Amino acid sequence: MSNRISDTLFQLIQSLEKSEKRHFKLYIKRSSAKEDLKIIQLFDALDKLKEYDEKQLLKKLPGIEKPQLSNLKTHLYKEVLASLRLLKSADSIDLQLNEQFDYAHILYKKGLFMQSMKILERAKETAKANQKFNFLTMVIALEKRIETLHITGNMQNKAEQISNEAIEISTRIYMTARLSNLAMQLYSWFIRHGHARNEKDELEVKKYLEENLPDKAFEQTGFYERLYLYQSYCWFAFTCQDFLKYYRYAQKWVDLFDEQPIMRRVETGHYIKGLHSLLNAHFDLRNYAKFDIDLKRFEDFAATARVQDHDNFRTQAFIYISSAKINHHFILGTFKEGLSLVPEIEEKLNEYAMFIDRHRIMVVNYKIATLYFGSEDYETCIDYLHRIIHDSTELRIDLQCYARLVHLLAHYELGNFDLMESLTKSVYRFMAKMENLTVVEEEIFKFLRNSFHVSRHSVKAELEKFLQKTKKLEKNRFETRAFAYLDIISWVESKVYNKPMSAIIHQKYLESKKRHYAKKE
């Protein structure tokens, strides 16, 4: 994988679909001189390589010497992007607007000011309809230049209109920038650390939110201002494990797109992320019925051409829907049935490898590992956990800690007691260093240490003590962060009652479902 990522041109060509490759060939033959057709040879050679290897590449290009290769690759990279721009322009508001601006700028340079102004006016209307206010700053800047340097015949009225628009747009852009910065920083905190480990973490995140939340943020009516406001509160609530607040703002996030359906096309990525956040909130609150409804909604949207024809959206939707489907099996306790998802997920992870970030791969590997843990296939669980434990990334310290903890529990289940004592010390030291030890984890380590020195009969008594202690802590979110990563209580209950963990969780699901329908009646 490192070779594929090391060469940007190779990565770009490997990402192309058949239709995009076909379009490039037609484009380059139509627009290039005969001597430039060497880049088609280079394109074909790179397309056929499985891994980027410059020596192998040069062997496939007998008419090209090594000193020529760098310039040829640069030329090919630009031509592939130009081809994609032409092919994708009809599918992107941003590309269409930039194209119109380019035309207006060319006409301005030609001295055709009125023609330029007409194009700018049309582009401005399109931008307003699609909430593209950053683009409007470029349009207004060019309009100002034309009106200031040239006589168009409507200077007085136009000047006042442009001045008012400039003030309004700059105000909206400033507010949007403040709120988008806030959302990004809060999300960044979560990606680095995971859920707040203690009151100190929560106060740090809360202080950042309060100090950086703009005045009158809740009075904003614009789409982007509200979008980033809701995202900010989503990440804050999720980080602090306030799942009810997380649900409320995730729902507001998705509702925003229902209010303005056109924005599902303009900001498809944000809509997909919103649906993912909403499903996560349903999972955390065990909103079973709503989870099923919104998962179906997500799957229907993912099947649309808007998502399927776009590499990024298709990949993003697949990852999030796969995660939701695994969560569904966690809710039901149907771990073994959930394993049927793994082959397709593995296949797609390989297919989409260059498009998926390391954080998302880490999360998927952890979820799959947990599926195997719940299915009592502890050896395969350990294999998946190794992918996280041996990753050098500094992302999601929380997942790195709990991957080690579940890894330890899997060895306990396998009866690898010769490893347990040293492994327990190692995992404890790591979690302590990362400040990821709560009372629940302390109790887990205490139980494991005691289990090395007692009889099998006495282990059950130790487990019963452990179960009573953890149940008392169940309502304290700082002491039960572990429950967000593994259902520790159900695991202990499976040991105490001598039942599979899956059966314990499924029984809880049935009881919860029964209570839900009883309330409705």
Could you describe the 3D structure shown?
By secondary structure, the protein is mainly alpha-helical. 78% of the residues lie in helices and 0% in strands. The chain has 28 helices and no strands. It has helices at 2-6, 8-15, 18-31, 38-48, 54-59, 66-88, 93-109, 113-129, 133-149, 155-193, 199-212, 223-239, 243-259, 262-266, 268-285, 288-302, 305-308, 311-332, 335-338, 342-351, 358-374, 378-389, 397-414, 417-433, 439-451, 456-472, 488-496, 501-520. Helix 25 (439-451) runs antiparallel to helix 26. The longest helix is centred in the middle third of the chain and has 39 residues, at 155-193. The radius of gyration is 28 Å and the shape is globular. The two termini are 56 Å apart. Mean pLDDT is 89; it is low at 1-5.
Spell out the key features of this protein.
single chain; 521 residues; mainly alpha; 78% helix; 0% strand; globular
Provide a short characterization of the protein structure.
The protein has 521 residues and is mainly alpha-helical.
List the helices and strands and how they pair.
Layout: H1 2-6, H2 8-15, H3 18-31, H4 38-48, H5 54-59, H6 66-88, H7 93-109, H8 113-129, H9 133-149, H10 155-193, H11 199-212, H12 223-239, H13 243-259, H14 262-266, H15 268-285, H16 288-302, H17 305-308, H18 311-332, H19 335-338, H20 342-351, H21 358-374, H22 378-389, H23 397-414, H24 417-433, H25 439-451, H26 456-472, H27 488-496, H28 501-520
Helix pairs in contact: 2-6, 3-6, 4-6, 7-8, 7-9, 8-9, 9-10, 10-11, 10-12, 12-13, 13-15, 15-16, 15-18, 16-18, 18-21, 21-22, 21-23, 22-23, 23-24, 25-26, 26-27, 27-28
